[in-house]
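User: quick one, sequence for these C-alpha cells?
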C-alpha cells in the first residue's frame, strides 16, 4: 500500500467513494444534497484521530464549514422551487449555487478554512481532500454555471493560490495553496469542456499522488526537514521532475492541459485572462523550484538517530511515475502537434 491507514476506516472510505457517485448521478437537487451530506459524514471518521489533537480540530472545522455550505445549498434549492420564473432571481440563484459549491471545494474567496484543515491531516487525507472531494461539487456546479461570476472566481483562485504559497514553511499548506491555484485552472477547464476538465483532474490527481506518496514515505511535513534527510539521487530527481510537471513547465506532462486551456483562451480573445494565468504559473514554478533547490543543492545534516527505510518497491514506483512525467515531451510530439 502507498499509504498506511486503519483497516477499520475502510468502510467509511467505500461510503466516501459511493456518496460521490450518488451525488453526481442524482436526477434531483435534493438527491445531490443527500449525496454531499453522506460524503461529509463519511470523510470525518477518516480525518479524526483521538491520539492527534490537530486531526480532531481539523475534523471539527471541516464539519462546520461543510455544514454551512450544505445549509446554503439546501436553502437555494428551496428558493429555486419557489422563484424559478423570474430571470433576475434565476441569475442570482445560479450565483448562490456556484458559491456554495465553491465553498465546499475550498475555492477562493471561500478558501480560508482549506489550508488550516489540511495542516492537521495525514498525507493520505490531504490527497483525498485535494482531489476526490472536489469531484462532486464541480460536477454539480457544471449544471448551473454562471460564466461572468466564475471568471472573477477563476482569476482570484490563481492569484490567491500563488500569493498564499509565498513564505510558507509547511509543505501541507503549500500544497493546499497549490491546490487552490490549480482549482482556478480546473474551473475554467470545466467552463470550456467537461472532457478537458476530466483530463486536467486526472493529470493533477496523478501528479499530486506522487508528491503525497513521496512526502509520506520520507515523513516530511516542513521544508526545513528536507535538509535533515540523506536522500539518494533517485528521490531528488523525482522531486524535481514532478514539481516541474505540477507547475506546468512545457516539456513535462502537466503542461498539456494548461496548454490546451491557454490555446482556447487566446483563440477566444481572452488575452488578459490568459496573461494572468501564464504569469501566475511562472510564479508558482518559482515556489516549486525553491523546494526542489532545497532538497538538491543544500548540504544535509545527517543525524545518527534518523533512519528512513526505503524499499526497492517504493523506489521502483517513484522511478516509473517520474519517467511518465518526464515522457511528456514524447506525448507532445505524437499527440499534440
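Assistant:
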Amino acid at each position: 500500500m502507498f499509504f498506511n491507514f486503519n483497516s477499520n476506516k475502510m468502510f467509511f472510505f467505500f461510503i466516501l467513494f459511493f456518496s460521490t457517485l450518488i451525488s453526481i448521478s442524482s436526477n434531483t437537487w435534493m438527491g445531490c444534497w443527500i449525496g454531499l451530506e453522506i460524503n461529509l459524514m463519511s470523510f470525518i471518521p477518516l480525518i479524526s484521530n483521538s491520539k492527534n489533537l490537530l486531526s480532531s480540530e481539523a475534523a471539527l472545522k471541516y464539519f462546520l464549514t461543510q455544514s454551512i455550505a450544505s445549509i446554503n445549498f439546501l436553502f437555494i434549492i428551496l428558493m429555486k422551487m419557489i422563484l424559478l420564473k423570474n430571470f433576475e432571481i434565476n441569475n442570482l440563484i445560479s450565483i448562490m449555487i456556484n458559491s456554495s459549491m465553491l465553498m465546499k471545494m475550498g475555492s477562493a474567496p471561500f478558501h480560508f478554512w482549506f489550508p488550516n484543515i489540511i495542516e492537521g491531516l495525514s498525507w493520505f487525507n490531504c490527497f483525498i481532500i485535494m482531489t476526490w472531494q472536489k469531484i462532486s461539487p464541480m460536477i454539480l456546479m457544471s449544471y448551473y454555471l454562471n460564466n461572468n461570476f466564475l471568471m472573477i472566481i477563476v482569476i482570484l483562485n490563481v492569484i490567491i493560490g500563488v500569493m498564499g504559497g509565498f513564505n510558507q514553511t509547511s509543505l501541507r499548506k503549500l500544497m493546499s495553496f497549490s491546490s487552490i491555484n490549480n482549482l482556478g485552472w480546473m474551473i475554467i477547464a470545466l467552463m470550456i469542456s467537461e472532457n478537458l476538465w476530466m483530463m486536467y483532474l486526472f493529470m493533477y490527481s496523478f501528479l499530486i499522488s506522487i508528491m503525497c506518496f513521496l512526502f509520506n514515505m520520507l515523513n516530511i511535513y516542513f521544508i526545513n526537514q528536507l535538509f535533515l534527510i540523506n536522500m539518494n539521487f533517485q528521490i531528488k530527481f523525482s522531486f524535481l521532475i514532478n514539481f516541474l510537471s505540477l507547475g506546468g513547465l512545457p516539456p513535462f506532462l502537466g503542461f498539456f492541459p494548461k496548454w490546451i486551456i491557454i490555446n482556447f483562451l487566446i483563440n477566444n480573445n481572452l488575452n488578459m485572462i490568459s496573461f494572468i494565468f501564464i504569469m501566475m504559473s511562472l510564479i508558482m514554478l518559482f515556489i516549486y523550484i525553491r523546494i526542489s533547490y532545497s532538497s538538491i543543492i543544500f548540504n544535509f545534516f545527517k543525524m545518527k538517530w534518523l533512519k528512513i527505510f526505503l524499499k526497492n518497491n517504493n523506489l521502483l514506483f517513484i522511478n516509473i511515475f517520474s519517467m511518465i512525467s518526464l515522457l511528456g515531451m514524447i506525448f507532445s510530439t505524437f499527440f499534440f502537434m
